[in-house]
Amino acid sequence: MMETRDSEDALMTSPDESPQSTWGRARRGPRLYSDSAIRTPASPSRDGRTPLHTSSRIFHTYGTVSPMRSHIDDRRSSNDVADEGSVSPPGGRLPGVLEENNTDADTYINGIRFWYSTFTSIDWLHDSIKGSARALRLRNRRSLTGRIINAWDRSLGWIVVTIVGILTALTAFIIVRLEQWLFDIKEGYCTDGWWKAKRFCCQVLGENYLTSDFHCGNWSTWAERFDGPQPSVEAWWIEYVTYGFFALILALGSAWLTVHFTPSTSFGDSNEASALTSGSMKKTVPLEANPGSERSCTSVCHEGYLGAQTLLIKGIGLSMSVASGLTLGKEGPFVHIASCWGNIISRWFVKYELNEAKRREILSAACAAGVAVAFGAPVGGVLFSLEEVSYFFPAKVMWRSFFCATVATVTLRFLDPFGTGKLVLFQVTYDKDWHTFELLPFLILGVFGGLYGAYFTKLHVLWVRHVRSSTWFRRYLLLEVLIVTIITTMLCFLNPYTRMGGPELVYNLFSECHVGGAAHKGLCLPRNASVSPLITAIGATMVIKAALTIVTFGMRLPAGLFVPTLGVGACFGRILGIGIGYLQVHHQEYPMFGVCSFSGDDDCVIPGLYAMESRVGAAAALSGVTRTTISLAVIVFELTGTMTYVVPVMLSVLVAKTVADFFQPSGIYDSVIELAQLPYLDCKHDYLWGPRTLHDIVNYKAEVIRTDKELTVRSLLVKLNRISGLDTGLPVLVKEGHSVLKVVGYIGYNELEHALSLVGGDLEAACYFRQNFTPSGSLVDEITGRDPYDFTVFMDQAPLSVNINTPLEAVHQMFTKLGARYVIINNVDGHYEGVLDKKAWIGFVNGIPRA
Question: What is the spatial distance between Cα 450 and Cα 439, in angstroms, rounded to a whole number?
Fold first, then answer.
């Protein structure tokens, strides 16, 4: 016996036909109460109205799924169903609902959901119920076809994350190669092939390209092209002008692409995407979102934010913005790019396309892959996804995240983007151990990282609040980019260390100095050389990079925060290492250097180690800025390829986070979310509730539907228009006695909108909700054969309810850990009092002090 339904559950659906795509939304038919949406009746219902299943054309609205191809439609029976999440008339997909054997009874009670509208939070409870019902339906198939479908369904998650990992690595490879060529084109071009970056134009072995100044016969600078090979003042000015010209073209081009070709019409700061993983939706999502921003991506819906157009513009714009020489990095945005691939690929499969909660599992794995290709750290990527990105991280998601990160790392290693066999340009190794007396400098690095992270956040908030959002920068989006690029070019061209690319600078600062070894761009000095000029140059680099990062971060172009922060921390660490090394060479009689004399090791202090620690002063600076701890420590271990420095790294990270939390409780990502007033509910915070109770927050005057009163299409449309947002709904009540209201159910905004769109243009037609609805057959029969004015099937008959005396902490746990979108509030007698939705709760807790 053919199991048509199960076969179709396993079919892929084109994202171009999904309601979330631009094309799909453009095809959504008539507006509400349009006469053209009513189809010609074949047989009237019991009250003379047209049954839903007798129509001859598909009606599209928010929440419906576009129809399948005609050859699939012909094979479907009247009670065929798809997975979950949306409903459409016959010829389209129906949600994961009951079979004839009535095994999924809970799906009746929970009601039908449609596609989430933009800026709405995910109903985790509903998606979990529908996902469980779908899995049960598939597992009950015992035939050979059913077993094949089950095997495909079980392996689908692994297949998706494999594809995501490969595509993420391939995209990272293309971005890195493009960025290298664009960065070098500011200085000159390759005579052997204009499309070659300098490192591939010149036959330089290994990493000599990064560690010393060399002459390359195939590389022609712009000064040589226009003024000849001899150094001169004119040649210097030619280099200066061409460097600035290309920097402006690249920066403005990246900003123009971002402003004109992204789904966002308003821009706040990088990492605003950190409200898409929590279950809340923000008002605007800028393209320049970075890793911490991805935190929000796993719990809210925003059309286009993770789409193909965003992916394309992000990749091109990121290469251009990094190549312009601005103080930003490309590693962080790789998380966003990986999330785009996770969203695009998962949309091809019904299992994930119709269940937003399921799709968030793929996004969590994709974020891990993004970190893995950025730092060559698959384990660190998994921990980063757990620590910073994911709102819900079960064991199976952890395994898939690790697998996805591993696939991405192996693929990128095979592609070899830098031509060195390394995954990251600044990946280094150390062959010396640290000494006990160096614990004090490591503590100093941690303190510096915490102070830098705290005051970086404070100063950035002041810049955004009083300059970017309060001046003409807010209206002229490209003007800020123009001014900052000019200032960056003027300052950075004059200093060889600020002129370097971020990864190149970090690599040289991290590197060890050996006698007779590479000079690392002058960072390795002879034993008795003066260190003052070098310390001055590095100190100036640190100050310039720190100041420029404050104003560059969050501009209207794709940008990352990781590498600039690593650079600032690495500069301070190198200065500290050079200073201690100088003391060790010239004052070996100091007691703390006794271990060096005893072991006969004249160079027992490694300046590069302190720079690496300032990755923990950049992981201390980075930990201070982002408040990430465990994942950063593991990323450092994977970058250095050794576990020798576990104690110093962990010590610096812990001290940095402690100091930063003391001076500034919120990290940069949390501060940006607060600045933009995004409805993000962070489950990591505890609150001091004090004497507050539910009485202080409950909406007693919420719009409701009374089933004991006459309901018409017009009256429901009026109620729909009174609702404040798409993320809310209406409690359905019935009057008992003289003044007692009992909760019958709850219907969301999208569901009511869809139900009204199906009934057509008779505004005075009566609508109704049934109490204690118990269908006699399958839910599909109820949908396709029901009276279209009966909205019971769209109502949640078991809404989450609490007593008015419930402690606020318990309510908070319902929103954070259960993922509820709303809570019905009843009095002590179990009668209706009011309703509390998630966004109202977020606004409430934002005004409460944290523990």
Answer: 17
* Separation between Cα atoms, residue 539 and residue 545, nearest integer Å: 10
What's the rounded Cα separation, in Å, for the pair 555 and 326? 11
Q: What's the whole-model pTM score?
A: 0.79
Burial class (CB in 10 A: 0-12, 13-18, 19+), 803: middle
pLDDT tens by residue, 623-647 = 888 888 888 888 888 877 767 778 8
Give 616's pLDDT tier (boundaries 50, 70, 90).
low
Q: Which helix (H) or strand (E) holds 661?
A: helix 646-663
Q: What sign for the dihedral angle of Cα 421, 621, 657, 278?
A: negative
Q: Which two tokens stand for residue 271?
A: 């990492």
Give the pairing of strands 740-748 and 832-837: unpaired
Give the C-alpha separation, 35 to 39, whole Å.
Answer: 9
Query: Residue 681 and residue 391: Cα distance in Å, rounded?
Result: 10
Q: Which residue has the tokens 């720190």?
A: 546
Q: How far apart are CA 278 and CA 391, in angstroms?
A: 6
Per-position DSSP letters for 710-755, written without gaps between them:
-EEHHHHHHHHHHSS-TT-EEEEEEEETTTEEEEEEEEEHHHHHHH
CA-based nearest residue to 122, from 358, 349, 289, 335? 358
CB 556 within 8 A of CB 481: yes
Instruction: Give the 3-state DSSP-derived string for 511-548, with helices as H, strands as E and coil as C.
Output: CCCCCCCCCCCCCCCCCCCCCHHHHHHHHHHHHHHHHH
Least confident residue range of 191-205, 698-712, 796-810: 191-205
In degrees rounded to 5, what are phi and psi of residue 740? -95, 130
User: Tokens 């209406």 correspond to what residue?
Assistant: 730
Range scoring the smallest mean pLDDT among 236-245, 431-440, 591-600, 793-802: 591-600
Q: What sign does the CA torsion over 72, 76, 81, 86 have?
A: positive
What does the pLDDT read at residue 772? 65
3-state secondary structure of 647: helix
Q: What is the pLDDT of residues 651-667, one digit of tens each?
A: 888 999 999 999 988 88
Amino acid 218 reads N
Kindly write down the DSSP assignment for every residue of 341-403, as one continuous string. HHHHHHTTBHHHHT-HHHHHHHHHHHHHHHHHHHHT-HHHHHHHIIIII-S---HHHHHHHHH
pLDDT of residue 166: 96
Dist CA 115 CA 753 (whole Å) = 12
SS3 letters across 457-498: HHHHHHHHHHHHCCCHHHCCHHHHHHHHHHHHHHHHCCCHHH
Residues 6+ apart with CB under 8 A from 379: 402, 405, 634, 638
- As given in the structure block, the two tokens for residue 766 are 């009566």
Q: Where are the alpha helices (DSSP H) in 664-726?
A: 668-676, 713-722
Among 278, 615, 325, 664, smallest CA distance to 487 is for: 325
Mean pLDDT of the chain: 75
CA pair distance 104, 96, nearest whole angstrom: 9
Distance CA 428, CA 523 (A): 15
Cβ atoms < 10 Å from Cβ of 16: 12
